[in-house]
């Protein structure tokens, strides 16, 4: 496991974006060679998306040969609802980049047969050759995607009932009205993310500090589903100083001492201009 | 375009690098167009899984809905109220020339005329969408002849009429047909006008009060019966008085149901309405303000002496006087000039200034689902403006119909 610690949210977002950018370019994607990227929603990745958009606008990065798979979507929320993850992805990422709409995959929370939709999603990932890099965020309770505490660590894409904590936290996006908050979601499983060749988890803010501690300093535990990635051969946690508040000094010092090594992953930042 | 062409095959154009007026705000957002209408790109992306065929860089300019002028008597030498002219050709000429002012639809306006003029002229003012040939025609605005003798302004006294007997039939006989009429300006104090207002409203004609000595009570009654517009506020009506505010009082009346929105026309050329009066009206009822030009046939002719009708007139900038006198004889300000003046005179937001020439006139006519906004599904009639609101280009149904020399599209 790699743990990359940056001074603040903006730097953590930029580091993550640079890493994604370099990974895509190094892959040398093309017509018969698509890079597959798993994507999260929520407030944490916003800064990372902004940077990726910037690279695209500057002509350094194209998503023409990138396929994306989103982690989750609410059930029963209209696609065009401002809080749907379709709307989120459109407004915060897709509308700004050059991805082919046929290559952007998000679970349909309004499908008539929800389990069939989930199975089809798994199949599409498989047909795309698996995920090269799955980017994720976590909740304060350590959930990855909507794999709430207690989710099986070998789970696949499926329908999940949301934890009351999550519903309460989401109420602010639905006029503070609990009855309007979706109570179910479709989500990739922990196992689905584990199958990715590489996983990058973004964790920022003091409110996620305990979850980061549970994720990396305690054992693998289905009550903190993100801890499963201790057993993934290529996992990289990108966090800010605030998120390290619950970690041991020894842990932080060790990984900070490795920053000069980790920074080689993002420096130099590649550009497609040079590739061509 | 062949009629069998289906939506999914048509070209999709994406205007990028622009601020668009949407939801009462200027936002950095792309504008997507297909088949002459504004497209929801998110729906296109997720449901049709399509991207744009063509991208057009707007160089950071503002994209606003096309301007709508609901009161314009003529321009470029054409007078819509003169029967010796070929009115069809005249309307077409004005429509073409209005494109340079960002006007994408308008209501050709007729002053008080004898019935035979209406019978001859109105059938030639056919309602039609705009195109590269010119701005769209939303229907005629007929001012008079059912107006006040005292407040007739320049309207000929001999042709004024009142409602007698079967009032509505009288009106039908006068105009010949309501088919091409969008707005009728009448004086609500005329006997039996209320039944006429009700009938016109039920037939979808917009009734405007104006050229009138109506007191507030009569004006409120008119609004309760369906009237929704005030013709050139302050002009040709009783002056505002604090014990009887007259028609002007409609702006702050509490005798009108809240859902019954009253709009009012303003000639914001800096000459016909004092900036202070403009500010009073704007601050009292900002959502009802509709900019109109009330333009004369001399609009667009430029400075100098022109012969119009029987009169020799002299145009100097926005002032238009009877030649050799200081007597104002009408407005020659274009609508984009009025938008800029309104913005500068009231210190309102750019959004507010633009909506007074777009959203508000569309709401007045009940066509805000098609015109006057850049909402999804609306007609792609829009203008490209610089930060000072100078028109750089005009589009109708997604097609470029006019552009400034300096603009690159």
TrEMBL record, chain A:
<dbReference type="GO" id="GO:0042802">
    <property type="term" value="F:identical protein binding"/>
</dbReference>
<dbReference type="GO" id="GO:0004342">
    <property type="term" value="F:glucosamine-6-phosphate deaminase activity"/>
</dbReference>
<dbReference type="GO" id="GO:0006048">
    <property type="term" value="P:UDP-N-acetylglucosamine biosynthetic process"/>
</dbReference>
<dbReference type="InterPro" id="IPR006148">
    <property type="entry name" value="Glc/Gal-6P_isomerase"/>
</dbReference>
<dbReference type="GO" id="GO:0005975">
    <property type="term" value="P:carbohydrate metabolic process"/>
</dbReference>
<dbReference type="InterPro" id="IPR037171">
    <property type="entry name" value="NagB/RpiA_transferase-like"/>
</dbReference>
<dbReference type="GO" id="GO:0019262">
    <property type="term" value="P:N-acetylneuraminate catabolic process"/>
</dbReference>
<protein>
    <recommendedName>
        <fullName>Glucosamine-6-phosphate isomerase</fullName>
        <ecNumber>3.5.99.6</ecNumber>
    </recommendedName>
</protein>
<dbReference type="GO" id="GO:0006043">
    <property type="term" value="P:glucosamine catabolic process"/>
</dbReference>
<comment type="similarity">
    <text>Belongs to the glucosamine/galactosamine-6-phosphate isomerase family.</text>
</comment>
<keyword id="KW-0378">Hydrolase</keyword>
<comment type="pathway">
    <text>Nucleotide-sugar biosynthesis; UDP-N-acetyl-alpha-D-glucosamine biosynthesis; alpha-D-glucosamine 6-phosphate from D-fructose 6-phosphate: step 1/1.</text>
</comment>
<comment type="subunit">
    <text>Homohexamer.</text>
</comment>
<feature type="domain" description="Glucosamine/galactosamine-6-phosphate isomerase">
    <location>
        <begin position="15"/>
        <end position="232"/>
    </location>
</feature>
<keyword id="KW-0175">Coiled coil</keyword>
<dbReference type="GO" id="GO:0006046">
    <property type="term" value="P:N-acetylglucosamine catabolic process"/>
</dbReference>
<dbReference type="Pfam" id="PF01182">
    <property type="entry name" value="Glucosamine_iso"/>
</dbReference>
<dbReference type="GO" id="GO:0005737">
    <property type="term" value="C:cytoplasm"/>
</dbReference>
<keyword id="KW-0119">Carbohydrate metabolism</keyword>
<keyword id="KW-0963">Cytoplasm</keyword>
<dbReference type="InterPro" id="IPR018321">
    <property type="entry name" value="Glucosamine6P_isomerase_CS"/>
</dbReference>
<dbReference type="InterPro" id="IPR004547">
    <property type="entry name" value="Glucosamine6P_isomerase"/>
</dbReference>
From TrEMBL, chain B:
<feature type="domain" description="Amidohydrolase-related">
    <location>
        <begin position="62"/>
        <end position="401"/>
    </location>
</feature>
<feature type="binding site">
    <location>
        <position position="243"/>
    </location>
    <ligand>
        <name>substrate</name>
    </ligand>
</feature>
<feature type="binding site">
    <location>
        <begin position="235"/>
        <end position="236"/>
    </location>
    <ligand>
        <name>substrate</name>
    </ligand>
</feature>
<feature type="binding site">
    <location>
        <position position="211"/>
    </location>
    <ligand>
        <name>Zn(2+)</name>
    </ligand>
</feature>
<dbReference type="GO" id="GO:0006046">
    <property type="term" value="P:N-acetylglucosamine catabolic process"/>
</dbReference>
<comment type="function">
    <text>Hydrolyzes the N-glycolyl group from N-glycolylglucosamine 6-phosphate (GlcNGc-6-P) in the N-glycolylneuraminic acid (Neu5Gc) degradation pathway.</text>
</comment>
<dbReference type="InterPro" id="IPR011059">
    <property type="entry name" value="Metal-dep_hydrolase_composite"/>
</dbReference>
<comment type="similarity">
    <text>Belongs to the metallo-dependent hydrolases superfamily. NagA family.</text>
</comment>
<dbReference type="GO" id="GO:0046872">
    <property type="term" value="F:metal ion binding"/>
</dbReference>
<dbReference type="InterPro" id="IPR006680">
    <property type="entry name" value="Amidohydro-rel"/>
</dbReference>
<protein>
    <recommendedName>
        <fullName>N-acetylglucosamine-6-phosphate deacetylase</fullName>
        <ecNumber>3.5.1.25</ecNumber>
    </recommendedName>
</protein>
<dbReference type="GO" id="GO:0106279">
    <property type="term" value="P:negative regulation of UDP-N-acetylglucosamine biosynthetic process"/>
</dbReference>
<keyword id="KW-0119">Carbohydrate metabolism</keyword>
<feature type="binding site">
    <location>
        <position position="154"/>
    </location>
    <ligand>
        <name>substrate</name>
    </ligand>
</feature>
<dbReference type="GO" id="GO:0019262">
    <property type="term" value="P:N-acetylneuraminate catabolic process"/>
</dbReference>
<dbReference type="Pfam" id="PF01979">
    <property type="entry name" value="Amidohydro_1"/>
</dbReference>
<comment type="pathway">
    <text>Amino-sugar metabolism; N-acetylneuraminate degradation.</text>
</comment>
<feature type="binding site">
    <location>
        <begin position="328"/>
        <end position="330"/>
    </location>
    <ligand>
        <name>substrate</name>
    </ligand>
</feature>
<feature type="binding site">
    <location>
        <position position="272"/>
    </location>
    <ligand>
        <name>substrate</name>
    </ligand>
</feature>
<dbReference type="GO" id="GO:0008448">
    <property type="term" value="F:N-acetylglucosamine-6-phosphate deacetylase activity"/>
</dbReference>
<feature type="binding site">
    <location>
        <position position="232"/>
    </location>
    <ligand>
        <name>Zn(2+)</name>
    </ligand>
</feature>
<dbReference type="InterPro" id="IPR032466">
    <property type="entry name" value="Metal_Hydrolase"/>
</dbReference>
